[in-house]
Amino acid sequence: MTLTPPALSVFETLESEVRSYSRGWPAVFDQARGSRLYDEDGHDYLDFFAGAGALNYGHNNPVLKRALLDYLERDGITHALDMGTRAKRAFLETFRNVVLRPRDLPYKVMFPGPTGTNAVESALKLARKIKGRESIVSFTNAFHGMSLGSLAVTGNAFKRAGAGIPLVHGTPMPFDDYLDGQVPDFLWFERLLQDSGSGLNHPAAVIVETVQGEGGINVARTEWLRGLAEVCARHDMLLIVDDIQMGCGRTGPFFSFEEAGIVPDIVTLSKSISGYGLPMALTLFKPELDVWEPGEHNGTFRGNNPAFVTATAALDTYWTDGGMEKQTLRRGEQVESALVALCAEAAAEGAVYRGRGLAWGIGFPDPRRAAAVCRRAFDLGLILETSGPRSEVVKLLPALTITPEELEEGLRTLARAVRETA
Amino acid sequence: MTLTPPALSVFETLESEVRSYSRGWPAVFDQARGSRLYDEDGHDYLDFFAGAGALNYGHNNPVLKRALLDYLERDGITHALDMGTRAKRAFLETFRNVVLRPRDLPYKVMFPGPTGTNAVESALKLARKIKGRESIVSFTNAFHGMSLGSLAVTGNAFKRAGAGIPLVHGTPMPFDDYLDGQVPDFLWFERLLQDSGSGLNHPAAVIVETVQGEGGINVARTEWLRGLAEVCARHDMLLIVDDIQMGCGRTGPFFSFEEAGIVPDIVTLSKSISGYGLPMALTLFKPELDVWEPGEHNGTFRGNNPAFVTATAALDTYWTDGGMEKQTLRRGEQVESALVALCAEAAAEGAVYRGRGLAWGIGFPDPRRAAAVCRRAFDLGLILETSGPRSEVVKLLPALTITPEELEEGLRTLARAVRETA
Amino acid sequence: MTLTPPALSVFETLESEVRSYSRGWPAVFDQARGSRLYDEDGHDYLDFFAGAGALNYGHNNPVLKRALLDYLERDGITHALDMGTRAKRAFLETFRNVVLRPRDLPYKVMFPGPTGTNAVESALKLARKIKGRESIVSFTNAFHGMSLGSLAVTGNAFKRAGAGIPLVHGTPMPFDDYLDGQVPDFLWFERLLQDSGSGLNHPAAVIVETVQGEGGINVARTEWLRGLAEVCARHDMLLIVDDIQMGCGRTGPFFSFEEAGIVPDIVTLSKSISGYGLPMALTLFKPELDVWEPGEHNGTFRGNNPAFVTATAALDTYWTDGGMEKQTLRRGEQVESALVALCAEAAAEGAVYRGRGLAWGIGFPDPRRAAAVCRRAFDLGLILETSGPRSEVVKLLPALTITPEELEEGLRTLARAVRETA
Amino acid sequence: MTLTPPALSVFETLESEVRSYSRGWPAVFDQARGSRLYDEDGHDYLDFFAGAGALNYGHNNPVLKRALLDYLERDGITHALDMGTRAKRAFLETFRNVVLRPRDLPYKVMFPGPTGTNAVESALKLARKIKGRESIVSFTNAFHGMSLGSLAVTGNAFKRAGAGIPLVHGTPMPFDDYLDGQVPDFLWFERLLQDSGSGLNHPAAVIVETVQGEGGINVARTEWLRGLAEVCARHDMLLIVDDIQMGCGRTGPFFSFEEAGIVPDIVTLSKSISGYGLPMALTLFKPELDVWEPGEHNGTFRGNNPAFVTATAALDTYWTDGGMEKQTLRRGEQVESALVALCAEAAAEGAVYRGRGLAWGIGFPDPRRAAAVCRRAFDLGLILETSGPRSEVVKLLPALTITPEELEEGLRTLARAVRETA
C-alpha cells in the first residue's frame, strides 16, 4: 500500500503545531467499524491502538450504536450537567448492579467532568480535603493528565515542562521493578514515612496505575500492589488507583486492581467507560470519603447523557457475566505467544515484551527502532503507537472485541514490520 | 404544578454529594426539544438556562440532529484523538470560512480536550511558555474552571478552597466597575506594572471574560476592554479572552469581544461550540504564538468527531450571515424591556438588572430572595439558576433560538415568581 | 578632598561581585566615633547613613562601649543560644521596665536569630501557624529582608528576581498615598476581603512599615495606620509592624507606631536594638499569640550576649525618660527646615522631601540625580545613600545622637552637593 | 551537685515559649572560659556542646579576646555593611593566605549576613540563578536553617511544620547508609536523573552536610562524597557543601570535605568562623559562579567587623600549620576509645557510636534514654545535648581546644551518666 500524504491541508495551515498523531499517521480517516479504520482514499487499517484505550469495544460497536441512535432520535436529553435524568439513573443502576455489587465494592459515584484529567483532579482535591495535606506521591513514569493538578503527578519531563510553572506538591517513588530488583519493595518509601527527619512532606494520598500505559506498559505485580495498599493503610494515606486506561476490562477483569484483591480508596475511570469513544469519566470513592459540598467541584459537560446511554449498553452487553474477562485473558495469551516467538527472532535482538490482559508492549533498546516499527506497520495497514519515556516501547492495545483472526493478522503484520526494520 | 420529589433514589444513595443542580430541580428529566425540557412524570419546563450556556441553539436542534444521526449511522469515525479526519477537516474549513475570515481573525486552532477547563489550562500553559513567566492576572469574580490551573485564576472562595492546596501564581485585579466608579480604570493595575517596587510579579498574561457569567452577569464596557488590551500591549502581557460562556453568539456577535474591536492574543471557546451540548473546546491564538511542540499538550477526547459534525452544521446554519447576531440583539431588547418594568415594581425593590445580548441577570440585595425566585420559577415550570459570589443574581440565559413567544412566556413567569416571593 | 581609589585590592579580587556600598564609597574605613567615620588614609566623613539605621546612638557610643568592654573583660558568656544568662535576664528586665510597661504593651519577647530577616521570618511563621492560612498581605515598595519568606513580601523586583523561584503567598496592597489620593484608603483591600468571589486568598496577616525606608521614605499617616488596624481586626488578620528600621526611636518615640495609637499583634525589631551595631533582633507578640512549641524556630546566634549588654545599656541611657524622643523631634524639625529651603531652590527643581523624626528623603525626578548628589556628597565628606524603587530618593538617616552643629554641617554639605549637581 | 531551678523568672514570664535550651539546662549562666561555663550560683560545667559548634576554640579564647578588646578600645569601626574596612581586608587576606591558597581552593568570598541560614539562602539563590531551575536535592535528616529557603531543604518534620506553608522545590534523597547498605549508592538518585519519565524536576543543585550534626551525627564516607560529586558533575547540578557546623576544623581539616578530595561548587561557613561566638557567615563559590549583581542579596549585619577581627586572629593562631588538624584527630581517637569501651558495657546495651574528628554521637534505641543521659550529665556538671530525628542521639561536640584531661573528665562523667540511667 502506498500512501500519498494529503497536499498542504487545513491541518497544516490552520490546526496548531501541537497535533501529534496526525503526523505519524498521515491519512484522513473517515469511517470505522470494530477493529477497522477507513481513510478517505479507500485504505483500511487494522487497529491495535483502540483510541489510546478508549475503544475497548471497537469502533462504532453496533449494539451501543443502536442504543445511542434510539436515544438521540427520541430527543432524549443530551446535555444535563448534574441534573437527574433517566439516562443517568439507568447508568447508575446498571453500574451498581453489574459492576459494584458483584465485586462487593461500596463506592459512591461522582461525575467529575468528561475527561480523565477531570477525574484525576477531583480525586486529588478530595484526598487533600480529607487529609488536610497537600503532598501526593506518584510513581516514576506515571501518566495522569495534562491539567496542572494531574500534570504535577505525571512523570514525563517534556509534558511537565509544558506547565510553565514549577510543578510541586508531588514526589515520585519507584514503580514496581524500577530499580531492577536491587531494592526491596517500598524500602525507600516506607523509610521516608517512618522517619520524622526524612524531609518528605506526609502525603495525603498515593496515586498509581496498575499497568503504566503511557509509561511503557510497566506491569505492577499483584503482591507489589498489595504491599502498596498496606503502606497506605499503615501511614494514613489514601490509595488512588488511576484506572483510566487499564480499567473497563483492559487487563481482563473490569477493574485492573481486582486480581490483586485490593480495594482502593478512590478510583478514576474514563476512556472506555462510555464504550463508544464519547467523553465520560467517573470518580469512585468509599462512602465515608464523600465529604464534598454540593457544587464544590463542577464542570459543564459532566452530564453527557449520550455517553451514559452507551455506557449502560456496554455494561449490559459485556459485563453481566464473566465472559468478557475470560475472552480478554485468552486473547492476551494469543498475543503473548506471538511476542515470545517474535522476541526470540534475530530481527528483534534486545527487544523485551511485557503486558497483561490486552495491554502489551515491546521495548527496543533504541527508540528509533520503535518508531520505525510503527511507521512500517502503518504502511502495512496496522495502527500502532509507541510509549515509554523515550518512546522506546511499541504498544499493543487492540479492542477487547477483536476476533482471533484479526489479532493473528495484526501480530503477523507486526512481526513483518519488526523484521523489515531490523 | 405540583412536583413530588422522587423517592430515595439512586441519585441519593449512589451519586456523590457533590451533585448540585439535581437538588434545586428535583425532577428526573427525560427528553428535550428547543427551549423545552420534559421530565419523566410528564411535566414540561421552559428553559432559561440553556445548559449553562452550552445550548445556544436549543436542545436537540433538528438540523444538527440530522447531521449527527447521519454521521453516526454511516459509521463516521467517532473517537480519533488528533488524527486527521474528514469531520475535523470540514469543521476547520467551515470555522475558517464562516468565523475567522469574515472577521479578519488570524487565529490558529487547537483542540485542547473537550471541556472549557482544558482550553483554559492550555491557554495558560501557552502564555507561560511564551513569556517565560509564571504569574497570571485575572479579575474579581472570574470563573475559568475547576482543574488546578484554571481554579487558580477563578475568584470564588468556596471553589478555591476545594483545591486543597494554596492556589498561587494568580493575582486578582478589579473587573470593570468593581469599585463603583470611584477609581479610574486600571489605575491600580498599571501603577503596579510601572513600579518596579510594587511587588507584583510581572504577569505573562491577563485572562478576562467580557461578561462574567458565573460572577453575576457583570458586563465590561467596550472602552474598558480596549483599555485592558492597551495595558497588555504596553506591558508585554498576552491578553486571553475566555469566551467559553459568552462566545458562540451569546452576546450577539460570534465572539463577545467583537463589539470592543479588540483582537485578543488567545481565545478559549467551549460550551456552545458543538452546538448540541456535546463536549468540545477550542483554543485559538495568533499564529506567531503557536510555539507548541507536537504532543506537548494532549488529551484522550480532543477528537470528539460527532461534536465536530454538529459544530460544522451549527456554523453553516446560523453564522453564514449576520442574521443570528441581529436576532439575538432583538431578543435581548425584549428581555431588557421586561426587566426594566420588573425592576420598577415594588415587589422587586432593590433589584438591579444588567446584561448584554441574551445574557442577563437580576441582582437582589438578599441572596435568599434570588434562591426563592428560582425555586418558585421552577415550580411554575421555568428553569433558571443563580450566579454571583453570594448566589444573589438570577441569571437568564435562554437559547438564542428561543421564539419571541417563549421568551415572553418565560419573562412573565419570572415576573410572577418575583412577585410571589416578595 | 581628593580620594584615590585603592589599587586592585582583595575586595576586587576575592570578595564577591554582590558587594555594593563599597562601590559607591571607595574608601577603606578604619575607625568611627559618634557621627564620624575615618578611613585609613586619614580622611573623615560625617555620617548621615548610620549603618542603614543600625547606629541610632552613633558609632562606638562610649557608654555602650564601656559596658561592652567590661562584659568582655570579665569573660561574661558570649555565645549562649537560648540558654538563660545574666546578660539576657538584665536585658529582658530592662526592656520590660523601660520599654513595655510605660507604654502598656503586653508583649512576649522572642529572640529569633540576630538579623531583621530572622525576625520577619519568625513573625510570618507564627502568623501562619495561628491562623492556619498561608497568604500574607504586604505593601507596595515594602522591604522586609532577603531570605525567601521575607523576600516574598518585599516589593523590589530586582531583589525578588534574585530568589530564583516564583515568590508566592504574598499579595501587595497600595501603601498610604500610593494612588495619589485618587482612591479612598483601603477601598480595594477591603472590597477584596468582603467579596467571597474576589479571588484573594484570605490573608493570615498584614505586614507593614510605618515609614518605608528602603522604599523611599514613604510615610504612612497615623489615620491610615489606624484604618489598617481596623481592617485587620474586622477581617481576622494579624497586624505585623516591621519596626526594624523605624523602631528604636528613629521616628521619635521608641516604637514608630506609638503616635498612631495602635497596638500591633506582632512587632519586629532589629538594627538599632543592640545600640552598638551588633547583630540582634527581637520578635514581640501579644501573649495569647505565643503558641510556639519549644524549639519550633531556632538559630545559632540568637543568644548574642554582648549585644544584650549594649542593648541594656542603650535602654538605660536613652529611654528611661522622654528626653530622647523630644530631642529627635527637635532634630527632625531642624532637618525639615533645611529641606524646605533646599527644595525651594532652583537647583532642586522637581525635588520633593518627606520624612518623620530623623528619617528623611529627597526625591528627585531623575534617579541619576540622586546618585550624583550622593557621589558628590561623599567627595565632600558626607555619607548618604539612595533608596526607592528606582534609587531616586536621597535618604537622610543621621544618628539620633548627632549634635545640632553636626546636623547643620551635614545639611549644608547636602545643599552644596545638590547645587553642584544641578 | 544539686541545682535549684530559679524562681518564676523573667525567662518564664516574658520570654517566648519557643525557648528550648533553657528548659533542659535550668541555670543562669554568667561567665565562661575555654571549656568551662559558670552559672550565677557558683556552679561550673564542663562543655561538650561548644555553642552547637560555634565555639570550636572555646569560650572567650584569650588570644581572640585580646584582639577583640584592642579593636573595640581603639574605636575600630564596628558595623559597616559591605563597606571596605581594614578589618575586613585583613580577614580576606588571611582567609586567602591561610585557608584558600594552601588548599588550592579558588573560591570567591561572599558575606551573606551573619548567620548560617543567611549563607544557605544565598547559596540556594545563586545556584537557582545560575542554572535557571528551581529544584534542589537535599538529604534525609539534613539541617540547613529556619528561614523558608533553608527550611525547605531541612528534613525535620517538626521544624518544617513551623513554616505554615507547604515547603516545596526540595526533594530528599537517601544520605549515606540511610538504607542500611541494602541499596547501591545513588542508585535511586541517578536513575531518577537519567530517566526523563521519572517525574523528578531536574535539580539546580544538591546540598549536603558531610557529617549531619542535627541529624544525629551521620557520617558520610569519603567515597560516597566523591560519588555524589560525580553524580553532580554528570547531571549538571551544582554541589553545595553546608560546612556550617562541620567546617572550621570540627572534623579535623579546616573544611570537612578535604578528606574526600572533592571541591564543592559552593560552600557555606558560619558558627565557628568568627571563633569567638560572634555572628558571622561566609558563602564561598568558584569564581565562574560569581554572577551576582551588586546588591542582589544584602543584609544589615553582613559587616560585623568585630567578628572579622576575631576570625582573623583565629586563623592566624590555629591554622597557619597542620597542628590543629592533627590535634583534633588525636582528641577524636581519645573520644572513640572511650565510646568503644562505653558501648561495650551492659549499661549501654543497644547503643551505637559514630563520629569523625571531634563530632561524635551515641545513639540509643529509646530516645528517652538519650534525654535521661543528658539530664543526668547536666546534674553531674557536663553540658551535652541530643540530636537526631527523634532526639535519640547524645551528641559530643567539645571545643577543639579542650585539654586531654578535660576530655577524659567529660568522658568519665558521660559514662557515669550512662550507667546511672541504665
Automatic annotation (TrEMBL), chains A, B, C, D:
Molecular function terms from GO: diaminobutyrate-2-oxoglutarate transaminase activity
EC number(s) stated in the UniProt entry for this protein: 2.6.1.76
Keyword Transferase: yes
Cross-referenced InterPro entries: Aminotrans_3, Aminotrans_3_PPA_site, Dat, Ectoine_EctB, PyrdxlP-dep_Trfase, PyrdxlP-dep_Trfase_major, PyrdxlP-dep_Trfase_small
Keyword Lipoprotein in record: no
Cited SUPFAM superfamilies: PLP-dependent transferases
Keywords noted in UniProt: Aminotransferase, Pyridoxal phosphate, Transferase
Domain of life per record: Bacteria
Classification via PROSITE patterns: AA_TRANSFER_CLASS_3 (PS00600)
Required co-factors: pyridoxal 5'-phosphate
Involved pathway(s): Amine and polyamine biosynthesis; ectoine biosynthesis; L-ectoine from L-aspartate 4-semialdehyde: step 1/3
Family per record: Belongs to the class-III pyridoxal-phosphate-dependent aminotransferase family.
Family annotation (NCBIfam families): dat (TIGR00709), ectoine_ectB (TIGR02407), PRK09264.1 (NF006733)
Protein name: Diaminobutyrate--2-oxoglutarate transaminase
Protein species of origin: Streptomyces polyrhachis
